[in-house]
Amino acid sequence: MARSRSGTRGRRGPRKPPRRDTGQQSAVQLAEPRERGAIELPTTVTVKDLAELLAVNPADVIRELIKSGIFATINQLIDRDTASLVAGELGFEVAEAATPGAQAAAAAPGEEARPEAAKEVLFQEEDEAALQPRAPIVTVMGHVDHGKTSLLDAIRNTAVAAGERGGITQHIGASEITHNGRRIVFLDTPGHEAFTAMRARGARVTDIAVIVVAADDGVMPQTLEAINHARAAQVPIVIALNKMDKPDANPDRVKNELSEAGVIVEDYGGDVPLVPVSARTGLGIDDLLEMIGLVADLQELRANPGRPAVGTIVEAQLDKGRGPVATALIQTGNLRVGDVIVVGETYGKVRALENAQGKRVGRAGPSSAVVVLGLAEVPQAGDILRVVGDERGARAIVEERRQSAAARSEGTGRATLEDLYSQIQAGQTKELRIILKADVSGSLGAITHALEQLSSDDVRINVLHEAAGDITDNDILLASASNAIVVGFNTRTTETARRAAEAEGVDIRLYDIIYKLTDDIDAALKGMLEPETVEQVEGRAEVRQVFRVGKGTVIAGCYVTDGRIARGGGARVWRGGKVIATDRIESLRRFRDDVREVQQNFECGIGLAGFHDIVEGDIIECFTQQTISRAAG
Hints:
By secondary structure, this protein is α+β, with helices and mostly antiparallel strands. Strands 7-8-6-9-10-11 form a 6-stranded mixed sheet.
């Protein structure tokens, strides 16, 4: 059926020792896992020490951290909460932290009990009887205009028309329906600003990804992007083939295009369900809901409603009247009014809870979306919500996290070609993940084939996503979530993507010759990196008027739209989305004065050294280059 059937995403109950799935298990094992038993964890621990404590490969610990949206190096400190989550995912029982009273009794006279003792155990072994089935959490994704919103509306209307409890509002970022007596929760993220961030950081809240494809349009770039996000998050996929009521619908063509993208539907002998639907007529809506229920049954989604709540923030904002307001999707446990919660780097006491219909409720159980009031600050989408013992312990946890975040700012722990070889030698990685963008689709096949030839027993090259076009912030967020590098061939990076890469610490590599691209990556795999020429885009200017001075001199009257233009810097001339010339900025004038640089939102005159065929509407991109040494070890 769907992909990754064995996933238990969102489950926060007792764990059985994990199955050693050859698709996920590291190729190198340091030692046999230690006997499963209660493990005592310190307040903070490095990734390396945690791996030694559990007697597992550090790569296993790092992989579990990546699944939770945490990108750590082998020597990075993580707090006890995070270590407990990792240990639980690897099948270990975590010993309960000392209670405040017991620790206070053990403290020497005159010493204050450590506030960290107030932390709750996040993973604990529980009786199977304590686990109860929970509703599946579904994210609907797909290309623009393929009918994602219409499909969600049709699902809500179907549930209401059938006389069942359903339907909700869109103001809290989630929808809940009941189909044949069974709850299903839909994340409404596609229509929200935080959608991209939630796909990259918050895909762990999703149990099933419904990919909407229009039967009359086929697989489009955003369809491929959505598929790759779901794969990176290891979420089962269900294809909703929408617009089947249209006369030019061609389901066979769509199935073939999906096969080319690596998604083999059941009709073609694969394991991905495909359900023909029409959001306009209601065709196949019941079948789609039945299929979602079947895929959920195969995952055996369960949670313990009796334990302290754990959830994920879907969206958050600052309300003038109510203060910080966050929408939380509870994944396990019960969240109650009065609970003390820690969310990311903030905390608070739950002052009120509002359900999907905007009504005040006293508690929220597993697979419930609620608006939470009472936090001290506005959290980020994708932050984890946890109930803790008291405010003193919450303050201690938040302070530790802020200190850890400050320490991480010195090194992001992202994958880079510079540290790839050392990671291979240390057994931290067996795979180089790449997001590949090129100017035209024809280049993608050649580059992918060349990269496949570089794979070896030591490391496999995995192209997670490939597409033609500019490098966008979506590419950066997917790379951030997957710990991948971004490789561009004859393409450019948008300004928003460049800022996102700097913020997330994502490595972007740009090339204009294929053999340079492959040589660079091959050298990184062998630990023989040559000094690197780093290009920095300084700014862009739009040509608004062209002045011809003398016989061969052309001055471009420009408006600086982004960054700065520097005299002597390199220049690329873009026309119609393509680079038509690479040159050097020989002269730069502001009115009658020669200047060294011109900042954003100012006009200037630009003269290039050799290229004079400039026309109005061209974009002149200014860049500089510098050579830096690189070391693999």
